[in-house]
Write a structure and sequence with these properties.
mainly beta; Maltoporin, Chain A; five-stranded mixed sheet; 38 strands
Amino acid sequence: MRGFLLSAALFALVPGAVQGTEPEGGVGKVEKLDSAVVLTSRAGRNTPVTFTMVSKDELRKTNPLNSLPMMLNLQPSVVAVNEGGTGLGYSKMTVRGSKGSQINVTLNGITLNDAESQEVFWVNIPALGNILSSVQLQRGLGTSANGAGAFGASINMSTASVGADPYASVDLSYGSYNTFTATTAAGTGLTRSGLYFDFACSRGTTDGYIRNAYADVQSAFAVLGWMNEKNSLRLTWLFGDQHTGITWHGIDLDQYNSDRRYNPAGEYYDAYGNVLYYDNDTDNYTQHHLQLNYARQFGEKVVWSTTFNWTKGDGYYENYKAGKKFTKYGFAKDFTYESDGVTYASDYKNDFIVREAMDNNYFVLNSDVRYSGDQLKLTAGVNLSRYDGDHFGKLLWSQVLGEDYDYGSHYWYLNNGLKQEANAFARAEYSPLTWLTAFADLQYRGVSLLMTGEEDDGTPLDYSDSWHFFNPRAGLTFSWSPRHKAYASAALGHREPGRSDIKEIIYSRNAGDDKSDLRPEKMLDVELGYTYTGAKFSASANVYLMEYWDMLLETGKLSDVGYAIKENVDRSWRRGIELAAGWQATPWLRADANLTLSVNRIKDFTEYVQHVDTYDNWEMTGRTTPYEYGTTTMLMSPSVTGMARLAFTPWRNTAYSSLKTTTLAIDGKYVGKQYLDNTTSDDRSVPAYFVSDLSVSHEFDLDGSALGLSLYVNNLFNNLYYADGWCYKNLVEEDSNAYCYGLGIYPQAPLNFMLKVSYRF
C-alpha cells in the first residue's frame, strides 16, 4: 500500500493534466443557446475555483451497474460507497470528507437536493449517467448555486446536448448476483425546422451482495425542444422509480467475521423461536421531474434563460417491527383489545408491519441573464422555490389484531414541512490584461421553514424559523501562457440545519433543555491552484483551506430512518493538498492519477455520552456524561485518498478501424482510515482499503452502426473490506455506568463481473 501511495504521489507531480476546462458556450450560437441554463452555474476556464469535468464518453465507459456517485469515485477527493455492496441500490459519496447533505447537486441548473434533509438520494434516479451530456464537479464552495448551500462541493449535471443526426442505441448488461440492466435511447437530432426529440429509458435488477439488498429500479427521460439562432424552448421530463430492500442497518464486527452477507432487515422470531425474515422489508420511491426552459439570445453577447421546474415525489418504506407496544403506533394508553378470551392492554408487546411514507411537491422558478464580452463576462439570476412535504405513518398489520382488524384509517402520525427560498446572485469575470482575470460573485439566500404535526413517536414537531445568508466570493486567475494557469480565491458560505438536525433539537427542548439550539454553519474557503497543460502531459496542484464555524457534526448515533444526530462545534477545519496528473505516454498508453493529503480537525471537541438503564431495557435516563478529547479528527474524513489508472489501446495505429477501439483499463483506488465518530478511536474506525477494477472493451464497426462488447471485473484482487459505518455509545447504569458501544458496517462485494453488449446506429 505504501508503494501505491508513493507511486501515485510521484506520478501526480509529473507535468500532466487534470483540471477540466469548460468551453465558453460550445461550438456555435445554437449550442451556446441550448446550454445557457447550464453555463450559468458552471465555472469557465478562467474562473478561479477548483473543478473537474466528466464528459459523456467517460460516463458511458463506466460500469453500467454504477450509480453516479460510483461513476465519480475516481475523481480527486471523492469517496463513494454502496450500502448493498455493489453499485446498484443506495449509494452515497463524500468530497473532501463533506457528506451528501453538504454537496449541492443540480440538473440543468435546478437543485436535486431534498429541501428538508438536503440530501440527494441517488437511487431515486437510477441510470442517470446514461442521459447526461457532461458533469462538472466543483470542490469547495465553488460558484453560486441554487438550492441547498454547497458546503464542500457542487455537482452540476447537464442533459442539454442536441446532436445533428438521428440516433438510437441499446445497452444490455448481465453480471454477478443475478444483476441485469437494460437501457434504450433514441433521438431525432436537430431537424431543419429546429425541432428535436430525445428519449431514453432503463431498468436494473439485482439480488444484491448482502441479504435483502435486491433492487428493481427504472428511469425514463424525454425532451422535446425547438431552436433557432435566437430562441430555444425545451420541455424535459425525468422519471425515477425504485424498489429496493432495506440495507441501512449495517452489521457488527462479530457478524461480519462469521457472515459478511448478513443483513438484519425484516428479522423476527416465530412462536417456536425460529428466525424468520419478512420478505417485504423495502424502500419504495417514485419521482417525476418536469422542466420547461426558454432561452433567448439578444445580439451577440447577451443570453436570457428561464426555467420552471416541478418535482413530484412520493414513496414509503415498509418494516416488520418485532416486540413493540401498541402505544408506539398511536393507540391510546387506555386501549384494550380482546381476542379468544384474552385482553391485551396498550403496553402489550407484539409484532407489527408498518409503513412510513412521504408525499411532496417541489416548485422552482429560475431566471438568469449572461453577458459575454471580450474582457467582461457578467451573470445574474434569481431563484424562487417552494417545497411542501407530508410525512405520515400507516399501520398494516398487528400480531394481536390479526387480519380482520380495520387498519385502513389508522395513521399514527402526520407532519408537514414547508420550506421556501429566495436566491439572487451576481457574478463577474473581468480581464483587464490577456493574462489576468478578476472574479467576483455575490449571493443572497433567504430561507424559511415551517414544520407542523407529530413525529412517529408522538412528539410535536411545531417549529418555525428563517435564515438570511450573504455569500461573497472573489478571486484572481493568472494565465501567463497557454500552458500555465494559476488561481487564488476566497469564498464565504452558510448553511441552514436540516430536518433531522432540527428534530433532535425539538426532542431536547421537549425534554426540558431550554438552551438546546442549532446555529447555521459558516465556512471560509480559500483555494490556491496551479495547472499545466501540455501536448502529452498535464498536471495540477491545489491547496485548500476550508475553515468552519458552528459546523454540524454527527455524534455517531443513527435515528430509526438512518439519519445522523448532529450538534454545532465552535471551530473545525479541512485543510489539504490535491495533486492530479495525466500522461499520454504513447498513442496506445495513457496514465492518470490523483492524490489528496488532508487534515480534518475539530478543535476542543466534547462528547456527551447518554446513560441507559439496563442492557435489556436500554431506556434513556436523561443523564449524560461529558468527555473532553481536545483536537480530534472528524468522522468519516480520510487523511489520504488516491487513484491511479492505466488505459491501453494496443492496436490504435492499426489499419483495421475496428481494432483501434480495443481498450484495456485498470484502476486502483486507495482510501485511508476513517473514524466512525469524532473521538479518533481505532476501535470505531473503517480501516484503510485499496480496491482495483479492470475493464476490457471493443467496438465493431458495422458500416454506419456499431456493436460494442465490454467486460468489467470489479474488486479485481478480491479484497474483503467494508467502506462505511456508524456507531453509538452509552453508559449502562445497572453496570456501574460501564461504557458500551455498538456499530454497524457495510461490507463491499468481493470479486464480481459485468458483461455489457451495446448496439448504436
